[in-house]
Structures are given as C-alpha cells and as structure tokens.
Fold this sequence. Notes:
Spore Coat Polysaccharide Biosynthesis Protein SpsA, Chain A; UDP N-Acetylglucosamine Acyltransferase, domain 1; elongated; alpha/beta; 2 domains; eight-stranded parallel sheet; 419 residues
Amino acid sequence: MKELRAIILAAGKGTRMKSDLPKVLHPVCGRPMLSYVLKAVQSAGSLTSYVVVGHEAEKVQKILGEGVEPVLQKELLGTADAVRRVEGFLKDFRGDVLVLCGDTPLLKAETLKALVKKHRQTGASCTVLTAVVGNPSGYGRILRTTDGQAIAIREDKDLLESERSILEINVGVYCFKNESLLKTLPLVKMNPKKKEFYLTDVVEIMAARNLKIETMETDSPQEGWGINTQAELASAAAVLRQRILQKFMLDGISIVDPATTFIDADVKIGRGTLIKPFTVIEENVVIGKDCVIGPFAHFRPGTKIGNNVEIGNFTEVSRSTIGDQSFMKHFSFLGDTVAGREVNIGAGVVTANFDGKEKHLTRLGDGAFIGSDSILVAPVKIGKQAVTGAGCVVAKEKTLPDHHVMVGVPGKIIGKRKI
C-alpha cells in the first residue's frame, strides 16, 4: 500500500470574514475549522500533513498537532505556488498526495477515503472531487471531451460563454501521484488576470501530456463549501451541528428538540440521557448515563457530569465536576466546583468563584445539601452531609465540617445535622 500525505492550503487572509482572526481559525461548533480538515485527512490515512501558512502564520501554527508540518508561503501567489512551497518535503516521496483547502470543515473522512481508493484503483495521475449543482456560479467547472474524459478545470472568471452552462464543479480536493505532481507544477504559468498560479491548471497540463485524469462525483456538494464569510460560517455550523445531534441520537441519547439544542464537537454523552430544549453544551464536556439535562441549561468547557444527574432549567455549569445522583434543578450557577455524589443544589445557588483577579475552587462533599439562594464565596469547602440554610452566605476560605449546618449572612455554624 502506498503511503499517503496531505497538503492543506491555509495561507489566505480571508478578508471577506472581516475579522482579525485568521480565516481557518474561526470556530465551528467549538473547534477551529482547520482542525476538522486535519482530522479528516488523518482519518483518511495521511500520516504526515503539511499546512501551508501565510497570514498570521504564528497563530495558525499553534493549533497544529503531531504529524503536521507548517510550511510558510511568504507571498500569497495562488494555490499552485502554495503547493510548490512543499516540494522540498516531497522530492523523495513515492506515494500519493491529497491537496485540499483548510476552510472546508464539512469535508468527511469517508469521502477522502473513497477518493484515494478510486485514485489508486484507476492508476490515475490526478483524481479530482467534483459535484453537480443547480447554480455553479463562482465555481470552477470540469471540462470534458465528447467521450466524457476530464481534460481541464476552468475557473469561473475565465470561462468561455459556451462553458457557463456546465453544472459540474470542482470541489477543490485532489489526489495526485506525487511524481506526476512534482513534474507538472513547474509548468504552471501565472494567470494574467489574477497574477496568481492556479493549481487547477495542473489538470489541463497533465491531460495535455496524456497523463490519466479521473474524477469522483460527491452526492453532497456542501462538503466542499469553502467558508469565506460570517454568514457561510454560520451555515457550516448548522450542518455540523445536525451531524453531531444525529450521531448522539443514533447512540441512544434522547434529544427532545434538535432545532433548539446546541452541542459542540468533542462532547461525550452517555446512553439514556435526555436533553431538553434550549440546552447549550460547549466543547470538552462529558455527561454520564441516564441524566436529565435542561431545558435552558448551559454547560461550558471542562465540565464533567456523572451518571443519573439532573441539571434543570436556567442553570449554568462551568469547569466543574458533579458526581453521580446529584441534583441542580433550577436557577443556579456552579463555576470551578467539585461536587461529590448525591449533592442537592437548591434553587438560586451561586458559587462566587472570581475575586476580580483569580478564580477559586469550591468543594461540595458527598450528600451535601446546599439551600436555596446560598452564595458560596470561593474558595470554600462544604463537608459530607453538611447543610447550608436558605440564603446563607459562606465566606471565602471557610470550611463547613461534615454533617454540620450553617445559616445566616455571613454564615455561622449552628450545630450538627440531624439524620
């Protein structure tokens, strides 16, 4: 089996985003869009990936993980020039190379695997991912001979009038034999209109040299969406969110109303859990089995919820751990909190975790009962089976011992809990 590598083009400014953040770093469902592309190529079999960076290169490089090599494109002279920046890494490579853009977060690993499989089965020098759409305006078109052989990709701005009716578009994903790619790249000339070197010209050059060109049509054109505006970013997020929700429902999680449920990538939810409407679950949240969540619940990153936990309406949990069989049914906030098993958190409870400079930890022991409207001014520690009365304010650095009761403002210990 030939080795597979990938080149991801991520050097552009993304001026239409109208943002100081590099385009490929804009978050989609909690993750930078570039991270979706990296994950897809890795899942497709690429052990080494090259990310061509340019605008704000240092920021982009920070999210690159193991097996990913940043390659600098100092001048933004087009996609073919971007691929040329990687030539030095590929000169002794004898495998296949995927080339795709870093602003396509909807692209699936399964599609890339199918593209590579067809490329290798047919022995093509280049295999291009295509789609047939109703409105191809703005996209490059696939030009074919009368017998259907692909011979070129023509950018929209360069189309002849007779070519504008073509509905088959270039999705912007290619699989090349590396030797063919390296021999053809030097032959690409600068486009006189854009003053850039187009990677799409490689296809026409290869065809003219009688190198085999293949295509694979995807039945999901949205996979190739390149994100260029904030509106397109929101559209991509909506698609990804539906994929996330669909997967959870197939795994046995009940989601009452997917239209009003927002779950980011990298969230884990146990089987049998019920998610009620208007719930927001951000990235890196773990929720156990058989929980009841929402409505109007908000889980922020770093939160871990045990099994058989109920988190009800108008609640927020941030960077906190809540143990099995605990309850927090309404109007409460837990931030930077570690709560044990069978903890009852009453209505209106707030952990005041931020002192203006730093955030501090609150600890709630197993079986603790936190009365309605209690305010816990972190850092504090509430012991096992301990109780705070309604409206109690537990001052910072206070400890309520196991089985004891605290009431008042400020809170004072009045004795042991009667069980």
